[in-house]
Design goal:
With 241 residues, the chain is an alpha/beta fold. It has 2 domains: 66 residues; 168 residues, 3-Layer(aba) Sandwich (Rossmann fold). The chain is built from 7 helices and 6 strands. Strands 1, 2, 3, 4, 5 and 6 form a 6-stranded parallel beta sheet that branches. Helix 3 packs across helix 7 and helix 5 packs parallel to helix 6.
Length: 241
């Protein structure tokens, strides 16, 4: 009986030691996990602070890179391309033909350049001269029509020579040219009209515009071919003197 009690006591002691070891291991693991979690949280907090500081520092540069569009910047886009010259080339071009000639004149003369843009752009249907009901046919049949200009921001003060270019429509300058010349003073300026056309001459279009302008020294105009070269333009300009 005494041997059985001793054996039982030994077994109970072994169970107690095992339980204590398990509790110690569990406590140690819990402490390790808690320390690891705290370290991760501390590292994440430092990274978040660094990210916030970087973002705050970069923000002013991003604001500078995208300037706000204002009415002043929009208006500047409509102003003539300036070369600091006393000569300017003003033109209207519905199809791009007159535009090409005007740009070559501006290059040869080192002039500023300004494009007259219709408030209501002309479509292909509008330009159909075979259609008696097309927009241009109706406009050219009415000498009192004055199409609106979308961007008439040009100031002719300071210019002494003004080239004015346009296509020929129904033997005359488009009515939008009347809108332009009637809105500006050409006092003290030499005005040189030029036109582009599939075959018609400049006719009386230049002198008619001079009458509508009522000011300026208007020279005889010239019809220029769409493919005119810069050297040919220079020869024409020399012939004006």
């Amino acid at each position: 009986m005494k041997k059985m009690m001793i054996s039982l006591a030994a077994v109970l002691c072994m169970i107690g030691f095992t339980a204590c070891g398990s509790i110690a291991s569990t406590s140690s693991a819990a402490n390790t996990t808690e320390q690891t979690t705290e370290a991760v949280q501390e590292t994440q907090t430092q990274q978040d602070q660094q990210t916030a500081e970087t973002t705050e520092t970069a923000q002013p540069d991003e604001d500078k890179a995208v300037p706000e569009k204002t009415e002043e910047t929009s208006a500047a886009a409509d102003e003539p391309e300036s070369a600091g010259s006393d000569t300017i080339v003003v033109y209207f071009s519905a199809t791009g033909t007159t535009k090409g000639v005007a740009e070559r004149i501006a290059k040869v003369t080192d002039a500023d350049i300004f494009e007259i843009v219709a408030a209501e752009p002309y479509s292909d249907a509008d330009l159909d001269w075979n259609d008696k009901n097309s927009r241009t046919t109706i406009e050219m049949n009415d000498p009192d029509v004055r199409p609106a200009i979308a961007n008439d921001t040009v100031d002719l003060n300071g210019y002494t020579t003004v080239y004015i270019g346009y296509p020929i429509w129904w033997g005359d300058a488009p009515r939008i040219m009347s809108t332009f010349v009637e809105a500006h003073s050409f006092d003290g300026k030499t005005v040189i009209p030029f036109c582009t056309s599939g075959g018609s001459s400049i006719g009386r279009s230049g002198s008619d515009l001079a009458s509508k302008a009522g000011s300026g020294n208007w020279l005889d105009g010239e019809r220029l071919d769409a493919g005119i070269s810069e050297s040919e333009i220079q020869d024409w300009i020399n012939s004006l003197n």
